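Appendix B.2, paired examples.
Example (i):
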Amino acid sequence: MPVTIRHRGLTALAAPLVAVLGLGLGGCDFDPTGIFAEKYKPEVVPDVPADKLYSEGLAKMEDSDYEGAVKKFDSLDKQYQYSDWSRKALLMTAYANYEGQKYDDAINASKLYLQRHPSSKDAAYAQYLIAMSNYKQIPDITRDQDRSEKALVALQELVQRYPTSEYAADAKAKIQITRDQLAGKEMEIGRYYLEKRNFPAAINRFRDVVSKYQTTRHAEEALERLTEAYWALGIPQEAQNAAAVLGHNFPDSPWYKDAHALLASNGLEPREEKTSFLSKAFRSITGRTASAE
């Protein structure tokens, strides 16, 4: 979703700042004869007023000239260092880069903003830009998920550090989406190993889904695949346990029907081991046990 930013209370500066270049040669004695004197004409170089630079940057944004906007805000930051204009300019630099889809530049500017202004009222927004800049770069499930990992970390940091901010709710929703993405990648790899009959490697991937991503839509399939892999590996008690945990937590799941059918075809029933890793993993989320149902 697109992000928005509000500009609060912008007022024009009373007068332009003027930089006056110094005169004379440092360290030289006064020359009363004027023989060695060099004449210097004072040069007055006016800065562009801060509010004008800011307005020009906003105008560039409205025209979707994000590169031009970045230049204006960068100039404002440099000319009015250590002022509130500099702070605003840096945040707008991050925002302009984000809108221009230069996400890495947006991340760098946002991180610099948080480094300079960690207690600012807009710190949560800077963190949101970091999270969204990574989120926008999440690739499809077949590719490396480094961006997904970074997005998850940044989103979680936003919720932890700024739980009451206006961006927290959106961050929580995107955390779930990102976790689902990461779980999907683990499932893809697990299925590959299962197809290649590398059952230990497949089990490791499916266990990761169960341990890290129980609340995603992939948890049900992960438990069913564990039932398959454990059975194929010749460990029926673990297969029974995986099927039982699946049944207790997702009794109406078609994946449970498949797991139950696999065991039944071999004369077995699901049976949960309450001290097992799988049982504990789901108990930590739901607080339920088999005997409690």
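Example (ii):
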Amino acid sequence: MFFFAYNILSTLLLVPVFLFNIYRSIRLGWPLAIAERFGFVPQSKLSEISGRPVIWLHAVSVGEIIAARPLLKALRRRYPGHAIVVSNTTETGKATASGFAEIDLCLYFPFDFLPSVRAMLNSVGPRIIIIMETEIWPNFCREAARKNVPLLLANGRISDRSFRRYLQFSWFFRPALRCFSAVCMQSEVGRQRITAIGADTETTIVTGNLKNDIPSHQTSEEERRRLRVQYYIPEDSCVVTAGSTREGEEQYIVSAYKELSAEAGNLFLVLVPRHPERTAEIAKLLEDADLRYKKRTALSDDHTTLRCGEVLLVDTVGEMINLYSLADIAFVGGSLVPLGGHNLLEPASVGVPTVFGPHMANFREIEALVLQYGAGIQVQTPEELTGSFRALITSSELRSVLGQNGLKLMRANGGATERHMEVITGYL
């Protein structure tokens, strides 16, 4: 009865969803990809996976696909004869996934409209489907189960705020959750939450956080020098990389940078908004602050090395690890404003100390680890940002200690990839 009612509703919403997708694509400058959204994959693409058993992994956007990277690498090593297909919902997620050598084919995830789902499942013909984190679509889940395709939830998590909403609508999620062959959660809290929503307790397990398995190493001076040359950043500067920044944060970062640049003549800022389509808005902010900047996409125009006190404004995706690796200090965005934060382990994985804000609802476990190991500094208000940056800028010893603590954290908390692989191997 639930799926019957859901399909009537999804049919009624098809036109509004279709029009909204067109509007969003035009506004953000994304390809429409209408055919794939309706489940039709060109034969030219399917030829890339023809004749091989398919592993299909779905990751909504950038954060999920980066978290999936260790798992993708492990799948490629263990199943070299399989084709790995990755679907994404956002253009930035697809752009990031397209740069991963482990992936054979990147697609847009279809609308959860029954004919669209059926068409894509028939075209791709997966042997197994792996859904990253908490992407639960009733028709997709049911059709996978109907075709006897094992459906796994990987790296599952439910934030404090999301749990209340999921619980309120458990009647909606329970039928889809019961279609999963296995549900792999990051933590015991997550396991308890998703079973309360409706997942089967017998098939729900704790496998840890794949984000803890990001490859980690101390960035060498030679590597840092090479990266700075690649990005035209002064080699002897003290670089602050502000990564995954969101609306409402850049103004505080720019203010702190201007004040500290007046005190330390060798400071340089790399500003990386989470959504590159906001580049023009941030460029206006920098101009209003009387700061010289260059966009990442314009670096090769004149091959001129930037100067201390200027800003590299990154209008691309897929370069975050490089941009943290060349830094002395990192700021991780989405945390000064109530948006749930972003992944603190990316700078920790390359031995770079991190500053972040109080709003980390989507990364509670990682936040706790970073504080437990002393791998970063958490500020409670935007106004504290300048002081925390100053402390790190003026003390190379403090930077070194926090950076080394981040690497210790990474070494001590891995293993989630192998635990996921044990589950996946049981179905392949």
